Fold:
Amino acid sequence: MKNTPFTEKHKALGAKMAEFAGYNMPISYTGINDEHATVRTNAGIFDVSHMGEFILKGENALDLIQRVTTNDASKLTAGKAQYSCLTNEDGGIVDDLIIYCIEEGKVYMIVVNASNIEKDWNWISRFNSKNVEMHNISEKTCLLAIQGPNATKILQPLTDTDIMNLKYYSFVRGTFAGVNNVVVSATGYTGSGGVEIYFEDKEDNAEKIWNAIFEVGKPQGLKPIGLGARDTLRLEMGYCLYGNDIDDTTTPLEGGLGWITKFSKDFTAKEILEKQKAEGIKRKLVGFEMVDKGIPRHGYEIVEENGNKIGEVTSGTQAPSLGKPVGLGYVSKEYSSIDSKIYIKVRDKKLEAKVVKVPFA
Structure:
């Protein structure tokens, strides 16, 4: 099991630790509900150094990215980022990711899910026929996400770049807490605002940045947050988690990611997805909330009134901010409209739920 540069910090703070994507990660500190509320109302810090980062550079870097991802990366200018995904030859999702444009047309950083680092690297490499320079910098990159409505206000004194007015899906590079060449981006996955900080794991950078953040943040209520609250926060927003809600067998159109699937360019499985769009999808990822009492969990069957299976729960929880159980799941197209009545099978009981819009309200 791998450690991040902050593993000992988490242990010292009393975190409950567990294996996640091959890393020893903090699941919770003071409890998921408390940590969730901290991010929604103030600010919390997540160690997400287990994520993967690739640098692609060269004259053909953009061509390669356009070939393997579904979104249109040609729209990116320096300092902008974009949510996208890789598709396999059947139209399934290899991974969802974020593309950072460092130098327009020539230098990009791709941030991928921790569990898919090797898979994504091999997949992108398969299509690299034009000698694009590729660097896997995952092992030497630290990544902290400081999320919440007060995150940028707390952090602004640590940098001379203006992070309080950083637009969503933009980033800046500069000095942070005395460390040079730090990337600060606003691509958060909690729905509460905030930034992510990328920097090289060398010398005492990790120690310096972690301590500086807590020095300015602790008096203002900043707390460390574990992966448990990260999951409830993203689920309340209806954001997909790879391996749960999307995977190699689900297409972007089925997973509600048609908005990042651009048919104006050529990419892997474009024809398959065009056909699926023309014919109409047979199943769809939907948000739902429970009507009957019970908490939906990943893998639970979704059935119709007569008990016939129409789908499966992919994510579910008691949503801390909403005070009610909600979930995501794939259902047959005819049960996917808002207010459709569906049932979740919980321990052989059929509990009523209804399809709702996401983000959950």
